[in-house]
Design brief:
The protein has about 200 residues and is mainly alpha-helical. The protein has one domain. Helices cover about 65% and strands about 5% of the residues. The protein has 6 helices and 2 strands; from the N terminus they run H-H-E-E-H-H-H-H. A two-stranded antiparallel ribbon has the order 1-2. Helix 2 packs antiparallel against helix 3, helix 2 packs parallel to helix 4 and helix 3 packs antiparallel against helix 4. The longest helix has about 35 residues. The model has no long low-confidence stretch (mean pLDDT about 80).
């Protein structure tokens, strides 16, 4: 264990840095996705005109906690992957970047289905104000879901682009290193009038 910690301490932190940068937009993508997948209104029962009626309300605390936990999970996994990738040297950046791409795709692929399901669970919109109430709706039915889906897609695309750029930069640096262009050439020392180096 001590040997592993020593290797991590002396390894390049570039894979962890890339994972840390990509974890932030990935977390927001997962938060939007998990809100669409898991959020549902709380239900309470009341009597109206002597008849039992279901009334939709805000999500329960346990539902909200589950959404935040599931949203944080991919970011934590990516940071752990970045930490482990430090042991791989330069290729660790590629592993961190590919991990971010895969985790992002896991949340983007089922996004349309999750959005449709969320709309079904909120038949009068997420603000739960029926059109008959006469007050101004903040969100119409399906409007919030469309905004959340668009945000997730845009941030997911940005995450993937940043990951691809990280791989491209690493490849460029590797090509320069193999060609011996890692540092600029140094000037020769000045020569005095007698022909000797000063």
């Amino acid at each position: 264990m001590g040997r592993l910690l020593h290797r991590l301490h002396s390894a390049s932190r570039a894979p962890l840095a890339v994972a840390g940068i990509l974890a932030t937009p990935l977390f927001v993508v997962a938060l939007m996705a998990m809100s669409l997948a898991e959020e549902k209104p709380g239900v309470r029962h009341t009597l109206r005109h002597g008849k039992p009626v279901q009334v939709l309300g805000d999500p329960t605390g346990s539902t909200e906690a589950r959404i935040w936990l599931l949203a944080a999970l991919p970011a934590v996994v990516l940071v752990l992957l970045g930490t482990g990738s430090m042991l791989l040297g330069r290729t660790g950046v590629v592993v961190s970047s590919l991990g971010a791409i895969v985790l992002t795709a896991v949340y983007l692929v089922p996004l349309d289905g999750w959005s449709a399901g969320h709309t079904r669970r909120y038949p009068i919109g997420v603000d739960l104000i029926p059109p008959s109430a006469g007050s101004q709706d903040i969100y119409l039915r399906g409007e919030w879901e469309g905004t959340a889906r668009t945000t997730a897609y845009e941030l997911g695309a940005a995450t993937i682009v940043i990951a691809v750029l990280a791989i491209a930069v690493l490849a460029l640096l590797e090509v320069r290193r193999r060609r011996g262009l890692t540092s600029p050439p140094t000037a020769p020392p000045p020569i005095g009038t007698s022909g000797q180096v000063r």
